[in-house]
């Protein structure tokens, strides 16, 4: 897992509760207190899951609540690090259709091809029709709540709303059906104008 994932979580904990909260979560997760995550290195997937679980235990928040907070923090960081990803998309549908490519670009700095492949193989997206995208997620991490939170947060960036349906389609594989309230490129107000 690319280190930016862990770094954003640690920074979120630090911003919320300072060094004490970070230290408590690291201890609960069994992660060394002096750990430093780099955004261009790969780290254990299991370690992130332990950090997320430990964050829930220490803060008393559910994984869903943590995922929502994390999604906003992650996208705020991504807008600074990768502004072009947001600029080149005129809607959340466009952005989420590019998500697999974005994921691959973020993995491009990893040292080995096996590490890069492990990241790039996690996502694929298919537009079924305007306003309806199907995303396949393959990972033993099973971070479906986090993907759902990220999808909703991306929609909010573009002042849009989506519905997300998630089904487990195989061992460590999920299918997300993303449906927008208005077709691609149109705002709800455009539909009202068309109907009048």
TrEMBL record:
Coiled-coil boundaries: none
InterPro entries tied to this protein: H-NOX_domain_sf, Heme_NO-bd, NO_sig/Golgi_transp_ligand-bd
Top-level taxon in the UniProt lineage: Bacteria
UniProt domain Heme NO-binding: residue ranges: 3-165
Protein's UniProt name: Heme NO-binding domain-containing protein
């Amino acid at each position: 897992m690319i280190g930016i994932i862990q770094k954003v979580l640690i920074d979120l904990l630090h911003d919320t509760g300072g060094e004490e909260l970070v230290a408590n979560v690291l201890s609960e997760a069994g992660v060394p207190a002096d750990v430093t995550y780099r955004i261009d290195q790969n780290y254990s997937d299991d370690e992130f899951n332990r950090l997320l679980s430990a964050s829930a235990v220490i803060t008393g928040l559910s994984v869903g609540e943590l995922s929502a907070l994390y999604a906003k923090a992650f996208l705020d960081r991504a807008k600074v690090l990768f502004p072009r990803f947001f600029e080149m998309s005129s809607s959340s549908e466009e952005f989420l259709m590019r998500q697999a490519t974005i994921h691959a670009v973020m993995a491009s700095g990893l040292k080995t091809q096996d590490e890069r492949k492990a990241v790039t193989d996690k996502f694929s997206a298919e537009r079924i029709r305007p306003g309806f995208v199907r995303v396949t997620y393959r990972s033993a991490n099973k971070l479906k709540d986090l993907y759902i939170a990220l999808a909703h947060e991306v929609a909010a960036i573009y002042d849009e709303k989506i519905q997300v349906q998630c089904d487990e389609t195989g061992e460590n594989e999920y299918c997300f059906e993303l449906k927008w309230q208005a077709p691609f490129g149109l705002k709800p107000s455009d539909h009202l104008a068309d109907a009048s």
